[in-house]
């Protein structure tokens, strides 16, 4: 009896966490496999990353309820990296990205990712979603997709025509479409049925259908868990001297970190428990990526689908995400043959659905109505990712965001009121920075030299040192022309000259 009491005291939430871990496992299993196959790597590598996300990252501090593993958001980048550098180089790229994340967490840079424009992040996800959808439509038809994002989209009409003339392609497409249909209608079914995760149910039904009707579709290739592990070799480490590989490492680091920390902010809104410690979460993600990279597996991020399922399933501590890693390990070790039964079109359907959810259609429309500049940044970022590549597309979005902020920060307006008699009223509003100094001085110096002037600065949000000094000099010059001294209405103390 006392042993039972001690057990319950030491693990007071074990029952809730155990149940939640099973739910997360069932959600994570098809996604781990699907992301790996879509990335052009063995399915087992997705499971390895999911296992590391549970057993390693899940044990660490940061966010108590986030669940980490391979994410659809990095599928495009991983595929491009494998195509360019080869599968053996993937591990060292992921490992180097993890080391960078550890360094950023150690230097307390985690919170800075929260400063990245939401428009850039949503544009990044939208671009990724478009490329995933286009690429997986080829996979659903049993075809090979073009390498570039633009090629994937432009080649869809021709691929559709080719598929219409092939019974095998049509059967494959039908299975993929059926998988998407199950995903869409599952949430409308009775609650007892919905206790089974939609992705797992869709893949299971597609697998049963392909077996029952002997459908001529491709299935997942199985190598075995141990056979899929590729430790980084010296050749792969030497590849880090390549500038293009370093760019890929930076892209992995930036996108994985941003996606994880934005996911943390979203998960924090789903529960009333401890808030995320961003620097520690970045260290946890970095540690997981170092281990995943050492094993030659996929990069990991915190994944909002698994994390929200964890919270909604009633998880109370981080034990649920650790246990989900245990279930993934047991499945990969004891039931690897089950993977060989899964049809590729079913996984393609899962990824098409996941890609569609990455595209923020509603928020884009709302953003366009309220902040068109931000909406434009979102759209340009998405288009750049599709047209160029992931890393450069994100950089373009960040550059636009910085340019927009700089323009807004330097926006200033001069209103001149001249009633014909008495002093001229000149009112400056906005932000007086050195970027707008020439415009400010040109407008002030164009005012009549023989009239008294009242300069009202109370409408300024900010007055930097360069502008403050220039206004003082202009005031002195104007007053020296034989007119009354310029009368200045100063800024409030909290908005006074800085710098």
From TrEMBL:
The SLC26A/SulP transporter domain, residue ranges: 14-381
Q: Where this protein primarily resides, as one coarse class?
A: membrane
> Source organism's superkingdom?
Bacteria
Q: What is the membrane topology listed in the Swiss-Prot or TrEMBL record?
A: Multi-pass membrane protein
Regions that span the bilayer: 18-38, 85-107, 119-143, 163-186, 198-217, 326-356, 376-403
PANTHER family assigned to the protein according to its UniProt record, in alphabetical order: SULFATE TRANSPORTER
From the Swiss-Prot or TrEMBL record, give the protein name: SulP family inorganic anion transporter
Q: Per the UniProt entry, what species is this protein from, by scientific name?
A: Streptomyces durmitorensis
Q: What is the lineage of its organism?
A: Bacteria, Bacillati, Actinomycetota, Actinomycetes, Kitasatosporales
